[in-house]
Design a protein that fits this description.
heterodimer; A: two-stranded antiparallel sheet; B: mainly alpha; two-stranded antiparallel ribbon; 26 helices
Chain lengths: ~500, ~650
């Protein structure tokens, strides 16, 4: 019975919130509904972690647990197939956290709060749906569900050049989807050696491993680029700075925090999981692109003057590191990549939340026009410094753990090509320090630039609450990394399907 | 017990009162001393490892490969434990007096909204620093060291930028963090290389247990050097960054923008010697990779001279002390660089640690004197001081003791440790010995120049600007001075050579009288020269400066290293890398994307005409199309 699977409730709850919102009249009712919904999601996520750990403790070693499959459209074998492994679990937890914090960050959204939250929860439906599905078609469907609300959220509630940004973001991501669609259909038609047994189920496709090598060679790039666009891979990242700059606070949070992770997750779960041969043959091209992303994003961030642009480029750099690590094809680096997704999600959400709060007070995001904010709003200032420290990899916060895991993992590849790129990626820690400290120095320290800023107030309770939730999560990962890593690593347990995949793709290429 | 020590300091960093911080540190001090003395008294100098817990597990790479957090006690970490807790405690005590007034001096006249809650924030950062530093010295593995290495970097950043409304302080803190971060990149790469081959981070295993992996590293050659050599040199880059070795020294003089007790604690006694400690910790590996030891010697010896030369021409008293710190740390580094088991049983190693220990005491003492003077005179410039021995006798005596110690005069602490370093240098190569002796002479000269300029020279009119005449600092500030001065007088007699040696075996080397006598003579010459020039106000120094104007200016401007760096970072990296990339992103990549959009738009406008709705044009197009198809099919048929 479908209702007995806990995973489906991650989709049901946001949909219920949508229904509840439709009937709420006052601001108070809206808030009650959204807070209840977001809290319910948090509780569900916590319950899922416990349940997952119990299942694993009980000795179940399946690839995916909590699976369930219900026929949706028989002619194409489309199922509503659900299932999670360690990676999906942490991604779901991440999404729940960000949705929760996002609700509090958009407490005073204006105008049309009801419609705003409608789109916001539709977006989260898509996000959760994507992470719980293991059927290609449903994944793609939820992916699209997550993308479309973005257009309206930015177009209506955004700021600055919002129509351009919303259009650009949507079109570029749609362009990516077109590649993706192509790739997915291609995979479907080669999913099994037997024409009568074609399937959309990821686990089955991976077990069949029937996609001909010649097909993999072009399906892999299509899928990887399709998801890479969302993962802000160079040179398909330009939607990100404009999109983030125009988006309202909570949307930036959700977008940078969770949506960009859909890209990384998709690259991992579909491109590499299903097409190991092509991943092995073509990985190096994407490795170069993502390596460039890492450094390029960081250097770009050094000269921006808009807070959101700085952060968007910083995201390009950090998300580049995610894809970079996935392409290193070993367990440690991949674990690091997932950690980095988690860490970057929380940290960027925190950043965007703070930027939104600062912007809401000063009405400018230009760092040249601000200064000395530490004296005026010490709470926000301290939070900003913490977020910055997490971003530049201070031990004890999440960024350090994930970056180090990635670097140690990447360095296990013994050929010069991978080594050189690892060192290049390492150098981003210095550049990151440069731009973070530049912002902190200009924005928070120094003399107050604008006398009007002296009258501004510090954070209020719902803002404090949103930031504390995120900071606590960042610090928890930073201090107790082994707990999170053990959940993620569970996916790569020896003897599983990843053994075969890693054995295929982990080999150095002949010319390396 | 040690975990408790670490935990307590973190807890303290949240509680925010000076007294509480000091008492907490006092407790740390007691625990630290008990631990260290118990360890030394136990008779066995074998390393002890406790509470080693897995922090991140990499068992998928190799069995037992993980990042651990724990406590490691061996002679040098026990010694560092004593240094860190002592200095930190005294600095906490001292800060209770200094910080009370310090921001009034610096920011009292400014508009409202100056630095608020400074006192609590200050103690929180100071405790955070002490916690991280203890974590660093007690690290069981190289990665734990790296973790705390970053943490001390951040606490240093926060403390240098303590006066965060002052542009100079912000700039200095940024510079310190980025420079050391750059060096840490080297450290990280070194760790990566080392751990790839040995599959461990653990010090014990690295040093004792993995000889086969080490020999593989030695055998593998990369760009003309063995991989081990590369790894160890990379790690040394990290150490050089923290320890302000040339050319990564530029952050330390600027770091003097922080409060003076901070300079004493972090930038003189503890954090900056982390690099020395790192090299000492991995010394057995360095002995195998001799190439990197040579790099270390050269860098150390050059820095020692370079910094001493600059120190002779500075006027800001904290800058003089900063360069003197650089120079003294370079002594320790050189001493490690020249140490070999075959020369006097590796006396250099022991000398370096000994000097680290004594230097921490007398340099902290000197910095605290400087703090006391600044506290009363309200300026860092030696030009505004002079004749203070009458007003501040205790500070004057403490300063004299410190200067004698750093110059290496019997029976003060510096004499013993510096002599050992010179012995080690002569044993390795006479050239190094002569070079280091010369630098030692310069040290004596500039330190006494400082002493005379502050406490003798000529008395400026202190009361002219509405200030009160300077007087002795309050008791909480003078007490640490007295304690440190006394320590400076006696610690030289500690039997260091019995406990701290590279192979845990007591050392039997006797005294080398030639070195003792020659170095004392050189120091006396330096002191004499300073006395002639700076004891009383005269125009000889100005004349000399005029005579060698170019050299003086160059030294005063620190040989233009900062300008060079500014040029590289701003003009080269920012202007030729960052800006073009940003432009490229907007114009080329984004331009391409926009071009697609524009082409699509243009195309739709172009074909819009076809949907005009007029039947005539549809029929017309239909006819043309039909004709075209007809022609084509005819052609095909033919």
């Amino acid at each position: 019975m479908i209702w007995s699977n806990i995973l489906i409730y991650f989709v049901i709850v946001p949909l219920l919130v949508l229904g509840g919102l439709a009937f709420s009249k006052s601001m108070k009712a809206i808030r009650t509904v959204v807070v209840t919904g977001a809290t319910a999601l948090m509780v569900l996520a916590a319950y899922l972690v416990i349940e997952f750990l119990q299942i694993r403790a009980a000795g179940v070693t399946d690839e995916m647990v909590l699976t369930g499959s219900w026929v949706w459209y028989a002619p194409f074998n489309i199922h509503l197939a659900l299932g999670v492994d360690g990676i999906s679990v942490v991604m779901i937890v991440l999404s729940a956290f960000i949705v929760f914090a996002g609700v509090f960050a958009s407490w005073k959204i204006d105008p049309l709060p009801k419609q705003y939250f409608l789109w916001f929860f539709l977006l989260s439906t898509g996000v959760f749906g994507f992470f719980i599905s293991i059927d290609l078609f449903t994944m793609f469907m939820f992916y699209e569900v997550a993308l479309i609300p973005m257009y309206l959220l930015i177009g209506v509630w955004g700021s600055g050049n919002k129509n351009y940004s919303a259009m650009k973001l949507t079109l570029m991501l749609m362009g990516g989807s077109a590649f993706l669609m192509l790739g997915l259909i291609g995979i479907y038609f080669h999913s099994s050696a037997n024409v009568n047994e074609l399937t959309m189920n990821i686990v089955e496709i991976a077990q069949n491993n029937a996609i001909p090598h010649s097909w993999q060679m072009w399906l892999f790039p299509a899928v990887f680029v399709g998801f890479g666009v969302l993962g802000a891979m160079f040179p398909f990242h330009t939607w990100s700075p404009d999109g983030h700059a125009s988006a309202p606070t909570a949307v930036s949070m959700l977008h940078a925090g969770v949506l960009m992770k859909l890209g990384g997750y998709g690259c991992f779960r579909i491109a590499i999981y299903l097409m190991p041969f092509a991943a092995h043959e073509l990985g190096w091209i994407f490795l170069i692109l993502t390596g460039v992303s890492v450094v390029y994003g960081a250097f770009s961030a050094c000269v921006q003057s808009d807070l959101k642009y700085i952060n968007a480029y910083s995201s390009v750099s950090h998300c580049g590191l995610v894809l970079f690590a996935i392409l290193m094809y070993n367990t440690t680096a991949m674990t690091g990549a997932i950690m980095q997704m988690l860490s970057h999600g929380l940290m960027t959400a925190l950043f965007f939340a703070l930027i939104g709060m600062i912007y809401g007070r000063t009405h400018t995001r230009d760092i040249r026009k601000m200064g000395g904010l530490m004296q005026i709003m010490p709470y926000l200032g301290v939070c900003y410094v913490i977020a910055g420290m997490a971003s530049l990899g201070l031990p004890g916060l999440s960024g350090f753990v994930s970056e180090m895991t990635i670097f140690i993992g990447s360095f296990q590849n013994s050929d010069t090509f991978h080594r050189v790129f690892t060192i290049v990626a390492c150098s981003s820690i210095v550049v990151t320090a440069v731009y973070i400290l530049r912002v902190v120095g200009k924005l928070l320290y120094g003399k107050v630039q604008d006398p009007h800023h002296l009258e501004l107030t510090d954070a209020v309770w719902h803002e404090r609450f949103a930031t504390i939730v995120l900071i606590a999560a960042v610090a928890a990962i930073g201090c107790f990394p082994n707990f999170f890593e053990s959940i993620i690593k569970d996916t790569f347990t020896p003897g599983g399907i990843y053994d075969g995949i890693l054995a295929t793709i982990g080999q150095p290429l002949p010319w390396m | 017990m040690f975990l408790f020590l670490g935990l307590m300091t973190t807890k303290l960093s949240k509680k925010v009162a000076g007294t509480l911080g000091t008492i907490g540190l006092g407790a740390c001090l007691v625990i630290g001393y008990t631990a260290a003395l118990t360890y030394f008294a136990s008779g066995s100098l074998e390393p002890i490892k406790v509470l080693d817990t897995v922090w991140i597990d990499f068992s998928q790479i190799a069995e037992g490969f993980s990042i651990n957090l724990g406590i490691y006690l061996d002679p040098i970490s026990a010694m560092m434990l004593i240094v860190v807790t002592t200095i930190s405690f005294l600095v906490h005590l001292y800060s209770n007096g200094y910080m009370d007034d310090a921001h009034l001096i610096k920011y009292g006249h400014e508009a409202e909204g100056g630095v608020k809650h400074g006192f609590q924030r200050y103690f929180a950062f100071l405790s955070l620093f002490t916690f991280s530093m203890l974590g660093l010295v007690l690290a069981t593995n190289i990665f734990q060291m790296y973790i705390f290495w970053e943490l001390v970097g951040v606490s240093s950043y926060l403390l240098i930028g303590f006066y965060y409304t002052d542009p100079a302080a912000i700039h200095a803190s940024k510079k310190a963090f980025i420079t050391t971060r750059f060096a840490d990149l080297g450290f990280l790469i070194g760790i990566l290389i080392l751990s790839y081959y040995t599959q461990t981070f653990d010090f014990d295993t690295l040093i004792n247990g993995s000889s086969s992996a080490i020999s593989t590293m030695q055998g593998t050659s990369f760009l003309g050097c063995s991989v081990l050599c590369w790894a160890m040199t990379c790690i040394f880059i990290g150490g050089a960054g923290k320890s302000a070795m040339f050319p990564l020294h530029i952050w330390l003089p600027d770091a003097m923008e922080g409060p003076t007790p901070v300079s004493a604690l972090i930038h003189a006694a503890t954090m900056v010697v982390a690099g020395v400690y790192l090299v000492a910790r991995l010394f057995p590996l360095y002995l195998i990779a001799e190439g990197s030891l040579i790099v270390i010697t050269v860098v150390g010896a050059f820095t020692a001279f370079y910094a001493a030369a600059i120190a002779c021409a500075q006027t800001d008293i904290k800058r003089i002390l900063a360069f003197s710190t650089i120079s003294q740390i370079a002594f320790m580094i050189t001493s490690l660089g020249v140490a070999r088991p075959e020369y006097h049983e590796g006396v250099g190693y022991m000398a370096s640690m000994f000097h680290l220990f004594t230097h921490a005491m007398f340099k902290a003492c000197l910095f605290l004197v400087a703090g006391a003077v600044i506290y009363r005179v309200h300026s860092n410039e030696s030009g505004k001081m002079g004749g203070l021995h009458k007003y501040m006798p205790i500070a004057s005596i403490a300063c004299l003791v410190g200067c004698l110690a750093i110059s290496g005069i019997f029976p003060f602490a510096g004499f013993f440790s510096k002599d050992e370093i010179l012995v080690a240098a002569y044993a390795n190569n006479t050239l190094w010995g002569l070079w280091m002796s010369m630098v030692a002479g310069m040290t004596a000269f500039y330190m006494f120049r400082l002493y005379y300029l502050v406490f003798w020279w000529d008395k400026p009119d202190y009361e002219a600007h509405g200030h009160h005449a300077p007087k002795e600092a309050p008791m909480v500030m003078t007490l640490p001075l007295i304690i440190l001065s006394v320590a400076t007088c006696v610690i030289g007699f500690l039997p260091f050579s019995d406990y701290i040696t590279y192979n845990h075996e007591p050392l039997h080397a006797g005294h080398d009288w030639t070195v003792i006598i020659s170095s004392t003579v050189i120091a006396l010459i330096g002191i004499g020269l300073a006395t002639v020039l700076y004891f009383k106000k005269n125009d000889k120094p100005a004349k000399m400066a005029n005579a060698a104007r170019g050299l003086w200016t160059a030294a005063n401007k620190r040989f233009y290293m900062d300008e060079l760096y500014m040029f590289i970072t701003h003009n080269i990296i920012f202007q030729t890398i960052c800006r073009p990339i940003a432009w490229f992103d907007r114009a080329i990549i984004d331009g391409t994307m926009n071009m697609f959009a524009n082409i699509t738009n243009a195309a739709s406008y172009a074909i819009r005409k076809f949907q005009s709705g007029s039947i005539q044009s549809y029929v017309w197009i239909y006819l043309v199309g039909a004709l075209a198809i007809a022609v084509v099919s005819m052609l095909c048929l033919i």
